[in-house]
Write a sequence for this structure.
């Protein structure tokens, strides 16, 4: 019984939030890694891309809500997703056309792209604040929980409740569908194969007649979709505030590097590694130890939650020291 | 610097004079002071980016560390707090150092599968051991009159010393971060510095025993006289009469001039050293490494060590500027450090001014800071003019006016992209 209680406690505070957060980071890191694989630079504007897509989704959600459209128990934002994705695709393709394409033709070094992406980040940031403002926006509706803590207690007779929010369930399901679709695309379709070829060896890919502009365009389109969905899921789960999307850039980068930059499998694994370590290190283990028969006054918390960024950073540093290519051998030089 | 550069500087000071005449002289000197500090920040980033091509995306962290030196050096110690918890903090620090030493030894001498596991276990045990000394000490310190102090205070030295200490703090952090991430791909340094800057800010916000956290520290001692004292000075009253200005304005300008003198002195020293360094064999070596790492390595240059050196030097300059900023503000507010303002804006300064050219970096600091400050009134004016056709209470007009403040983010981004593309060498190009 005690062990079951400990398990429920862990499930509620560690596993469920960890899986959800891991999915969100994984989707974000996939976007970073794809752009890295194809365009070979770390895209600092990625967090703002997520925020932009989410912003459009929110505006569309409000529109739908005012028309009286709803999805019942599911959040209306799911219905508004395609609008956000289209807007993000438009924005990224415009950016590529007017910013990055020039440097591609010049064959600039990755650092120049990186600085350009910082400029792009500024512009997106201003654009978002200009349209929706810097404040918190709530756009989640529908039923809040799949399982409520109280219902779980009644159902199982345990002391500890296990709550699963609707947004958490949606996050996991959407991520699974997206990842399957993405890997099917990369491994089975002609366009996906040409992308992998281009990422592995640009010159050989060009030689075999792959159109680089097309590959780049597809990479941006996929990135826009992933970023919008990741941003919306994150916003539904927590809340939408433009500033937070600048902050999750660090864990997302850490996830991509831990997995190995340029490796999609790595991005997903990295997302979960970062998410679980962040939550486990900032989790107060006292009650869990209590159920295991070890009573203590201390909170048994390694780091206060204010330092959750320190965790992604520490993991990043360890990976850089021990295995700079990441878990799934991306490109480190 | 050449005629072009000199002309641009004259133009810049002309613009400041226009602000003085149109808006107010105290404002013009406020802008000037921050222009001087921005110029030093910009020099710091230029040392890293312009000389060596190193991408530091954590400028904010180094500036904030330097700013913290302002507290640690200048405030009088809170004796009671030091007695209550100083020993505990020291003990925790010693434990942390000991654990770091053990881990270093283990990492050097252990081999095989158990290595990572042992190191992890030592780290976790060490963390708990250090926390057992640290937590009660922190609690004791923060309990001491927490509405007014609740922190250790400082050393009670003149605040000018903090400029040096700030540089040392920032250099130390830079050494650690450089040691880990230099020698790998260039993006890794960018991401690692982004991380360290976020952590430094989180630390400054949460370690109340050291910085009072978000409760802020105000009323730092000043290296220059106070306005109130100057307002009774007969010489200044006479000057105010002659220039037909209010004595309040004259006193405020006088104080700002004192600051400007100090900042200018630092700027000139940093600039002199930077110029000397850039023109020395060392500077030529740095640029050779920047332009072709492989060739420089083939010539026997230790690229990673030189990168570490230049990264530490540049960060030290950032730390000095950070301490100067705290001195000018007279307060330390961790929540005011925003990456857009303290990292990316400095980048815009360097790129616009001319990467690799010290005079360019200085000019970039001046120009970009000037327009960063003035963009808001200008943007507001533009929006007001544009929307003047709309009704006074129109929702669109109101929204646009309210959002004018965000225009400057977009303006800075646009300037960065335009300069990077159409004038990548900046206002004063590198020779």
């Amino acid at each position: 019984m005690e062990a079951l209680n400990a398990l429920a406690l862990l499930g509620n505070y560690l596993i469920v939030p960890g899986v959800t957060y891991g999915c969100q980071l994984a989707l974000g890191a996939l976007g970073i890694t794809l752009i890295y694989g194809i365009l070979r630079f770390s895209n600092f504007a990625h967090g703002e891309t997520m925020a932009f897509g989410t912003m459009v989704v929110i505006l569309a959600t409000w529109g739908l809500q005012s028309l009286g459209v709803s999805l019942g128990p599911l959040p209306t934002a799911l219905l508004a997703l395609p609008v956000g994705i289209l807007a993000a695709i438009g924005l990224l393709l415009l950016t590529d056309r007017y910013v990055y394409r020039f440097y591609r033709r010049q064959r600039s070094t990755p650092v120049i792209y990186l600085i350009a992406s910082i400029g792009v980040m500024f512009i997106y940031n201003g654009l978002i604040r200009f349209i929706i403002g810097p404040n918190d926006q709530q756009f989640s509706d529908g039923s809040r929980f799949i399982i409520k803590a109280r219902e779980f207690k009644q159902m199982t007779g345990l002391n500890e409740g296990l709550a699963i929010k609707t947004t958490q369930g949606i996050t996991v399901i959407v991520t699974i569908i997206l990842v399957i679709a993405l890997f099917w695309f990369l491994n089975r379709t002609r366009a996906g194969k040409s992308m992998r070829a281009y990422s592995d060896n640009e010159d050989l890919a060009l030689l075999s007649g792959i159109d680089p502009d097309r590959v780049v365009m597809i990479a941006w389109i996929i990135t826009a979709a992933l970023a919008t969905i990741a941003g919306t899921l994150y916003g539904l789960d927590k809340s939408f505030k433009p500033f937070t999307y600048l902050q999750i850039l660090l864990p997302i980068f850490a996830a991509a590097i831990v997995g190995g930059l340029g490796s999609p499998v790595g991005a997903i694994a990295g997302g979960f590694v970062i998410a679980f370590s962040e939550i486990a290190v900032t989790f107060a283990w006292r009650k869990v130890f209590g159920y295991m028969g070890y009573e203590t006054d201390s909170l048994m918390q390694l780091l206060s939650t204010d330092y959750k960024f320190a965790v992604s950073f520490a993991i990043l540093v360890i990976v850089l020291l021990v295995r700079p290519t990441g878990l799934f051998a991306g490109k480190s030089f | 610097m050449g005629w072009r550069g000199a002309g641009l500087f004259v133009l810049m000071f002309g613009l400041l004079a226009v602000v003085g005449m149109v808006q107010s002289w105290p404002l013009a000197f406020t802008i000037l002071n921050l222009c001087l500090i921005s110029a030093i920040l910009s020099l710091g980033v230029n040392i890293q980016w312009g000389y060596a091509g190193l991408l530091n995306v954590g400028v904010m962290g180094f500036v904030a560390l330097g700013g913290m030196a302002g507290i640690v050096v200048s405030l009088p110690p809170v004796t009671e707090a030091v007695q209550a918890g100083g020993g505990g903090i020291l003990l925790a620090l010693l434990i942390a150092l000991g654990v770091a030493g053990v881990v270093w030894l283990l990492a050097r001498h252990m081999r095989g599968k158990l290595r990572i596991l042992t190191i992890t276990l030592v780290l976790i045990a060490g963390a708990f051991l250090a926390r057992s000394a640290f937590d009660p000490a922190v609690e004791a310190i923060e309990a001491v009159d927490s509405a007014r102090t609740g922190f250790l205070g400082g050393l009670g030295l003149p605040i000018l010393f903090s400029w040096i200490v700030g540089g040392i703090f920032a250099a130390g952090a830079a050494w650690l971060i450089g040691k880990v991430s230099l020698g790998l791909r260039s993006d890794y340094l960018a991401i690692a510095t982004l991380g360290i800057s976020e952590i430094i800010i989180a630390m400054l916000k949460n370690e109340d025993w050291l910085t009072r956290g978000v409760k802020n520290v105000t009323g730092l001692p000043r290296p220059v006289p106070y306005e109130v004292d100057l307002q009774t000075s007969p010489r200044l009253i006479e000057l105010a009469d002659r220039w037909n200005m209010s004595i309040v304005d004259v006193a405020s300008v006088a104080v700002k001039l004192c600051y400007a003198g100090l900042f200018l002195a630092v700027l000139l020293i940093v600039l002199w050293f930077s110029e000397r360094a850039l023109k020395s064999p060392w500077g030529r070596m740095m640029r050779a490494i920047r332009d072709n790492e492989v060739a420089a390595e083939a010539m026997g240059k230790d690229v990673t060590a030189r990168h570490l050196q230049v990264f530490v030097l540049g960060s030290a300059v950032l730390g000095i500027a950070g301490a100067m900023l705290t001195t000018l503000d007279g307060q330390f507010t961790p929540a005011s450090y925003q990456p857009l303002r303290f990292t990316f804006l400095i980048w815009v300064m360097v790129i616009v001014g001319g990467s690799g050219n010290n005079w360019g970096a200085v000019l970039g600091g001046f120009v970009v800071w000037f327009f960063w400050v003035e963009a808001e009134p200008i943007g507001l004016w533009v929006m007001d003019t544009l929307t003047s056709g709309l009704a006074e209470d129109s929702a669109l007009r109101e929204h646009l006016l309210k959002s004018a403040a965000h225009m400057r983010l977009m303006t800075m981004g646009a300037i960065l992209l335009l300069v990077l593309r159409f004038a990548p060498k900046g206002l004063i190009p590198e020779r």
